[in-house]
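Record pair follows.
FIRST:
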Amino acid sequence: YPNPFNPETRINYSIPKAGMVTLKVYDALGRQVSELVNGYKNAGNYIIEFNASGLSSGMYYYKLTSGEFSDIKKMLMVK
């Protein structure tokens, strides 16, 4: 979890305060390849499944944004 994965993984995240949340996945060149969350979420812990079966092996990044908070993490997909 989530590294390395093939082709599915789970991404855990916590929201301390209710508000708009986005969770997007980008390839190594910075191109968005998936949008997993885009909407209002209540405070709490969440798990989202990411299926990358249509993507090639390599490094991917996911960016979580909630209010003024933003965080980026790496994921490694190995086929």
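SECOND:
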Amino acid sequence: IMGMPADIANATNRVGVALHSVVATLGFRREGVEVASPDALSIVAITVAGGLTGALIASFLPNLYLKPVLLGVMVGMALIILVRPSVVVPPPGTPVAKLKDKPSAWIGLFAAGLYGGFVHAGVGFLLIGAIAGTLRYDLVRTNAFKMLCVLAFTFAALAGFIWRGQVSWVPGLVLAIGMMVGAHYSVKVAFSVSPMVLKWFLFLMTLVVSAIALLS
């Protein structure tokens, strides 16, 4: 809408994302959602490695690749939610899997981090697929893990974009204010609705983002 080049918009967006993830992570902690587990450090480390790689690629890659990647990921995630909803909403009582027993989780977490570092938009959907789909955490705990991962790799990616001089600070900080308010209330909403409502909200958001990417 502002006519900002795609690479500058991509980098500037990370200011809001970074501060949003701080507020959301603290919000989940206040609500008593613990992400402490033997795999927590490994999960974050894998996504950070992917995020740094993706940010470096995005920083040097021509802008024309950003939109097709975003659109492909969003449409793919919408189809997964529609056709195989158990991927993102494990049935109640499903035991949590260990990272060492799930090689697919390593791939999914690195890929989510890679995409998050590259373009970020919609990365939450990929992290949900990796954390809930392979490690089988419930959606509320998955969201808490997701925000912790986003917090870690976004600050790493933002450092790279700042180094490249691609961040426009004024719109980035204005965006951050809105995203911090949204994070505060979205954490509360996560505890007040059922997993089924969260699933269909997730599906709706993937369609909205896909439409925006297609029409813009």
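COMMENT: The first helix runs from residue 6 to 30.
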